Amino acid sequence: MSTEHVKVLIIGSGPAGYTAAVYASRAGLKPVLYTGGQPGGQLTTTNDVENYPGYPEGINGPQMMVEFQQQAERFGTDIRYGLATKVDFSGYPHRVWIDDKTEITADSVIISTGASAKYLGLPSEQEFANKGVSACAVCDGFFYKGKPVAVVGAGDTAAEEATYLANLSPKVYMIVRRDEMRASKIMQERVLNTPNIEVLWNHETEEVIGNDTDGVTGARLVNNKTGEKTEIEVNGFFVAIGHKPNTDIFKGWLDMDETGYLIVKPGTSHTNIEGVFATGDAADKVYRQAVTAAGTGCMGALDAERFLAEKEFEMSTAEA
User: How does pLDDT run across 69-81, given as a tens digit for each residue?
Assistant: First the structure.
């Protein structure tokens, strides 16, 4: 097994990771970034990004992440393909294993591993990904302005997405598996008091319907109490059943909430381990936008830079 020491190790390559890389490399910290299992992160699964500042005509998601990567490389970031598979934060420097075969010791670690949207697991859902099926109403709702849409889910996120879409679409179906919602009372009231939202209780999605030309055109539902099947006509199908942060390898080392989101000191990217910083969707269960991820990537790099400067000062003082 090979070993290597770096000053700044960035794990993950979405907007947070690449932004951290731009800042860290411009500060002369010579960061090494490992892309993770999905180079470019969730944006590589999005066709059109229209809400990121600086792109007045919008931009294709994968192309945007290529440009992020090129900017990081321009300032000297060492970008490598590989997946972090194990960590040991018990001592200093920190230890991280890549693909179970390379051990990296790092003076600071910036975590940008992101989160993955949960889907229903239907083949038709994957078939129409980016052709009407989405896991982010704020990202993609605008494309369905004036068209009927459906939201799957019963929690606060689903309720928020349904009410958001109700401002854009003439008809919003909210598909709820049980005869009640998990959402907070105030969010439930908002849904039930919005006239163009229709809640379909005790319903599950059997298939997303569509074609290559039009994308999604509808969905086949089944009433799990009666077995009755119905079809609804929709052009947007939004899955809002939660996200899973990609933080499993940090369990036992870093503080996280019950769903696995990393906990940071408010207003910073500091985790409970000195010299380890969390950025992007791995630590953000509220906003989950490219622009907020990039902002926290900047924070992670600046926090790491200050941490390393303090460490160097402590060492020089101790030697003196």
Answer: 999 999 999 999 9
pLDDT single digits (tens) 7-46:
999 999 999 999 999 999 999 999 999 999 888 888 887 7
Give helix 185-192 / helix 156-166 axis angle, nearest 10°: 30
**156 catalytically annotated:** no
Contact partners, residue 283, CB within 8 Å, separation at least 6: 111, 245, 261, 262, 263, 264, 269, 296
Co-location of 205 and 262 in the same domain: no
* Cα radius of gyration (the chain): 22
Exactly one of 140, 281, 284, 303 is catalytic; name it.
140
Residue 234 corresponds to which tokens in the numbers above? Answer: 């929709």
140 assigned to active site: yes
Q: Which candidate in 139, 281, 284, 303 is catalytic?
A: 139
Which residue, 262, 268, 265, 264, is CA-closest to 250? 262
CATH number of the domain within which 105 lies: 3.50.50.60
What integer pLDDT is reported at residue 57 of this predicted model? 93
What is the span of the domain harbouring residue 61?
2-116+243-319
> Is 248 one of the catalytic residues?
no
Q: Which of 78, 100, 136, 212 is catalytic?
A: 136
